[in-house]
Amino acid sequence: xxxxxxxxxxxxxxxxxxxxxxxxxxxxxxxxxxxxxxxxxxxxxxxxxxxxxxxxxxxxxxxxxxxxxxxxxxxxxxxxxxxxxxxxxxxxxxxxxxxxxxxxxxxxxxxxxxxxxxxxxxxxxxxxxxxxxxxxxxxxxxxxxxxxxxxxxxxxxxxxxxxxxxxxxxxxxxxxxxxxxxxxxxxxxxxxxxxxxxxxxxxxxxxxxxxxxxxxxxxxxxxxxxxxxxxxxxxxxxxxxxxxxxxxxxxxxxxxxxxxxxxxxxxxxxxxxxxxxxxxxxxxxxxxxxxxxxxxxxxxxxxxxxxxxxxxxxxxxxxxxxxxxxxxxxxxxxxxxxxxxxxxxxxxxxxxxxxxxxxxxxxxxxxxxxxxxxxxxxxxxxxxxxxxxxxxxxxxxxxxxxxxxxxxxxxxxxxxxxxxxxxxxxxxxxxxxxxxxxxxxxxxxxxxxxxxxxxxxxxxxxxxxxxxxxxxxxxxxxxxxxxxxxxxxxxxxxxxxxxxxxxxxxxxxxxxxxxxxxxxxxxxxxxxxxxxxxx
Length: 535
Fold this sequence. Notes:
- The chain is of the alpha+beta class.
- It has 18 helices and 16 strands.
- The protein has helices at about 35-40, 45-55, 70-80, 90, 95-100, 105-130, 135, 150-160, 165-170, 175-195, 210-225, 235-250, 260-265, 270-285, 350-365, 450-460, 465-475, 515-525; strands at about 15-20, 20-25, 295-300, 305-310, 315-325, 335-345, 345-350, 375, 400-405, 415, 425, 440-445, 445-450, 480-495, 500, 505-510.
- It has an eight-stranded mixed barrel. The protein has a three-stranded antiparallel sheet with strand order 7-9-8, with no helix packed on it.
């Protein structure tokens, strides 16, 4: 390849850096004015890139004589985008390779250098903090995303002695991320084999049943590893035990009968599972810069559980009830820090519940919902006879409602507070029967805890030799009493329909709120590529 250059410019070195399908001419520095002009023209719409290249006198970052290692690391990293479940089309490595192969001038190289920098910034941002802005997809995801500073990224790459290590450090450090990547690869391999059978043609199955539906159930259990190869054709004890194992691992009531929920999860095709895994990877990227805490509380909404995690191990687990699957009542996703627990809590009814549910009742009957006090703006109780409820609208109603401490209080006997603008917290509930259900989405958004006393004792055990005694002493006062935690505990309200268990096996849950479906569609729109075959 021949290049023309002026006598004042150093000659281009006719050399090639080859990795994968990329081959491009390397040039000595500094480049001729043609290179600088092409860079300046290419970055004029991007303040960050413009300032970066101007500060280095328009010297190349990727296409110069010292850029070979950076370029190799970048292209190698871009080639992993699919494995991470990132939108490959956004970085367009194929177009970069084509531009490199067709470069015929320093102007071409200048434009290519800028395109490589743009791809670097996009990939680095997406891998370290997610390809989507979650709140734009679902307003219930109020997680704060910390994006990397592009100027800092460029400066770091320019001085990095190990560019490959730089890219390796971008992905989340959570061990679950690596396990989910492996699950993604395994699902894609299974889809490529096309070995997945059709759906189980039944709504429910139980011991004693037979026929084609039971054979389909048998084959699915074999495919998933819950049964060895067998010619069973009836729903016997062996099949029931296999179904029970599946149910336990999917968080279902393990009764051994294949009910509607069990059949639905068994019928989930590899493509559906793949979507769950890809979205889970994105969710972990959103949390890549969130310190989980050596001790933290992990509330996975589709799993309907809350766990205390100490140094990576589950030390406490309880069932929970999450928000109803209706607008404005779905539990949000965010992280905060638990500061205290309130014993014998009063319940300040949220404004949305007051005006939507209780005000119409009070307008029809001023003595309705007698367990609630009417309070003014200063928290003082107002006699109901002094209020003409019918004269107010939802917008003008000036009062609040409060339920004082009692055995029937909606918050039970304890609430766990991590003050936040979403007004969400964990709490006890008198409705204990709800915890027996498989799908537990009944609240107005807060998280109801199945074993609140045990959770309180587990939290207090870190600061007291007698956690039960401390709690009971506060309980016995009959008054609302706050117990401060000596150390704030991170609380993560998350939404994972695919997650690895303690043994590293990925488990799946139903998309209760439809959030995963919306996120997956958004990733597809952003350029996510799927396998040609969808099992």
